[in-house]
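Work Package 3 (structural annotation) set out to generate three-dimensional models for the target panel prioritized at the project kickoff. During this period the team completed the workflow that converts sequence records into C-alpha cells, so that structures can be stored uniformly alongside our sequence database. As a representative example, we reproduce one entry of 384 residues exactly as it appears in the project archive.
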Amino acid sequence: MTPARQAAYDILMTACRGLSTDPALESRRAQLTLPDAALATELAYGVLRRRAQLDLLLLQAYGKTKLPPDPEVLTALRLGAYQLRFLTRIPPHAAVSESVEIVKRHGKRSAAGLVNALLRKLPPLPEHWPDAPTRLSIPAWILARWSEAWGRQAAESAALAALTPPVTYIRPGSRFDRIHTLEQTDVPGCYRLSGPLPPACRIQDIGSQWVASLLEVQPGHAVLDLCAAPGNKTAQLLEASPRIAVACDASPRRLHSMARSGHASAARLLRLDATQPLPFGRVFDRILVDAPCSGTGTLARNPDIKWRLAPDDILRHAARQTLILAKALACLKPGGRLVYSTCSIEHEEYAEVIARSASGYSVQSFTRLPGRDPGDGFQAAVIT
C-alpha cells in the first residue's frame, strides 16, 4: 500500500475517533515526500468533505439501509469510493486493490471481499442528489441552523464553499521585496497565492488578516493578544510596532510551537487561562480576543469539524467565550479598543456572548460568510 493512502487512512481513523485531524495530518505530512503529502491531504480531506455523498453511493451499492459498522471497513470503503468518483487521475484498479489491502492490513481480512464487491458495484455520481444535506455533504442540523440565521441561499453557499479546498492567502514579511508578483486583496497587506510560497512570507487566511486589521494598532500602543496561538495574528499586530505586546495561550504545546515559529518573537509569551482573572489591570490600549470556538466558518480547511460537532459543543464554547471576553474587558484602558472574534458563524458564540459580557460598551459588528466573502467565515465585534 502506498504511503499516501496509509497516511490518509490513519488521518481518517483519527476523525472516526472524534478527534481533530490537524495534529495527525501535520505529523504524517512531516514523514512523507511532498507529492505523497499532497495526495494524503487530498484523500483524507476529500473524503471528509464529501462523506455524505460517498455514503449514499456506498449504500446504493450495498443494497441495505446501513453501512458496515466497523470504522476500519467503512473508512477503507470511503477512501476507495472517493478515488473512484472524484479523482479521475487514480486508476480504478489501484483505488479498489489498495482499499482491499487496507482492511487486510488492519485486522479486517474477512471484509476484504465485501470491500472489493461494493467498490466494483459503486454507482456513478447522480445527476441530482436526493436532498440538500447530501448534495452539500453537511449534517442536516447544521444546514438548518444556518438557514435560520443567514437565509437559505447564504447557508447553502457556505456549505458549498466547504466542498472545495480553500484558496491560500499569505502575508509578506518585512524582508520580502517582490510584492508586485502577488495578487493583492482588499485587506491591506494580504495577498492571494497562486504559485509557490515566496520566501519571508507566512500563510494566513484573509479572514484572519481582516480580523487583526480591525484592531488598528498604532506605534506606542500596549497590545494584548489573549488567545494567541498559533501566532499569525500576533505577528500581524507587531507590524505596527506597538510599545509592548503580550501574547497569551492556555496550551503550553501551542505556545512552544508559537515560540519555535519565530513569527511573534517580539512579543512576550505567557501561559494563561483566559477564563480566569488576568494579572494585568486596565493597561492595554488594544486587546484581541480571537476566542476558541466551534470553527464552523472553517469547514473548507477543517472538514472533520462538521462530522464531530454537536449542538451541545456550541453552547459549551459560548460559555467559555463569555468568561474570556469578560476577563479581557477588565484589562482595557478607557478609550481603548477590543476586537472579539470567532471563526464560528453560530449566533450563540457571537451575539449572545457580546450581549452577556459587553453591556455598556460601544459595539460595531461585522460578519464574513464562506461562499459570500473570500476565505474563512468570521464574526467580529469592535468594542470600545
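The chain has a mean pLDDT of 94.
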